Amino acid sequence: MNKQPYPDSTSTTPLLDTQLYLETPEGVFLPLRPAGLPVRVLAFAIDCLLRGALLALAGAAWLYLGKFGLGLASISAFILLWFYMVLFEIFNQGRSPGKQVLGLQVIHSDGSPVAWAGSLTRNLLRVVDLLPFAYCVGMLSILSSTRFQRLGDIAAGTLVIYQARPQ
Questions:
Q1: Can you tell me the distance from the alpha carbon of 157 to that of 83, in angstroms, rounded to the nearest whole number?
Q2: Which of 118, 93, 109 is nearest to 147 (CA)?
């Protein structure tokens, strides 16, 4: 698919327009709206609150199991922190609960649904976006990219977009 800013190559593009058009092999242009920094931060905050609540509930439940419970809590925390986003993106059409609440979705840059490799890559590289503190690298990457992509998105070839509304 060709990635073009506008279907009509002779039109002038406003600087604030974030609409992206992907051309299919049939010559149909698919409009996509990449999600910017504020809405992505809010979606991530919702997901962090949900993960924190799940960790607190699991920790409280396993507190009574002693060392075995501590082991279960550690394994659960690892899975929740590293695979929460991946599992939701794969099994919920590219949407974590935070993204779903705000109408966002992760897709591949060609418009296809996100797959295991893309989701794993973008989420494992979230650690790099965290550097040096408070997601500075990730925020700078989103702000400097015309498609609002984190480093993980660039490496995985993914986009976070606003979901298309049913007509």
A1: 19
A2: 109
